[in-house]
Amino acid sequence: MTQVLFRNARLVDATSTEAREGFDVLVEDDRIKEVSDKPITASDARIIDVKGATLMPGLIDAHVHVKATDLNLALLGVKPSSYVYAQTTKIMEGMLQRGFTTVRDAAGADKGLADAVDHGLIAGPRLRVCGLSLSQTGGHSDQRPLTVMSDVTSNERHNMIQHFGRIADGVDECRRAARDELRKGAHHVKIMAGGGVSSPTDPIENTQYSMDELIAINEEATAWNTYTMAHTYTPRAIQMCVRAGTRTLEHCNLIDEETARLMAEKGAYHVPTNITYFALNKHGKEYGFPDISIEKLKTIVDAGLGAVEISKNAGVKIGFGSDLLGPCHRYQADEFGLSAQVLGNHGVLRASLETNAEIMYMENEIGKVKAGFRADLIIVDGNPLEDITCLENDGAKIPFVMRDGIVFKDERDAA
Length: 415
What we know:
This protein is an alpha/beta fold. 32% of the residues lie in helices and 20% in strands.
């Protein structure tokens, strides 16, 4: 049995709009054993004095791509899988060092990566994975150039070499693909339901998948006691997914009020990812983002925060995502400052902690400093309820990170 006792902590989580001063928190093995505003006695515990700093739950990101090692995703097709894996471990380590102790991968990561974290083989955040996303021919995960002919054989060959998505056309193929990803250990299913920025051949305005196909995928996820997440930008794509039973809608930059009301009525979640558009706008050309994708980016880059406001006003539950690629992963936590412009500091903390935990069906496990919860804890130099930027800048003000009771970062005594 291993114990760690945090003393004199200022506690911040999303359960209160104000920090709670002068708390002790006892961790035993991988769980929080006790939280008290009175001194806790634990004679064998390692003592960590948090005085002057904030103790809070590990951050949660509901939309990442840990295997997105380049801005131009087509480059992954020419790299050996072993090399991509090595790059992936560095990306995951960076996320953990920024204070993110749980992330939901939105295409690419598989159960093997999730298990490697759980078993201590990789120093990274806890992973919830979808495996390969499901895409129609010509959809957002179809990275083939225009010169490649498409038929059943080429679709199957494409699926064998993909890092992020698989092609499935028609109800029967969609059912089989969803079942196959769940068979391989996916925690949820990802649907590419509309046009995207990084894919070369599909306009942003497109809907992807018929209603029958969307319903079939959702039925398979429900049968497995899980849910679907969907890549969407336009009202038409969002509405189709919501009516088909999709639980979380990603991005949603072009949402309108009618669509937001439908999402609220059906209990669907909106996971915005505005930081990726700002990062791509700033660094796209520098890091080789395709020209056609930079042009498509212009359609959505300025609409994202307005979309969050529309969803907020309609009563939609809003999560926290980043969706960054390649060297732009370092901006992951800067989504806090962007979303806080609409949600406020407490609102964006609630999005990352409570709402994201709920999205992942982990609301009784993570996102709070509470007895019985997983010992995912970070120390922050500052109070994010007053200054949200103390969570940003690549973890510069987060000197301590613990996940499952294991310390992965401790720079508190660094000169």
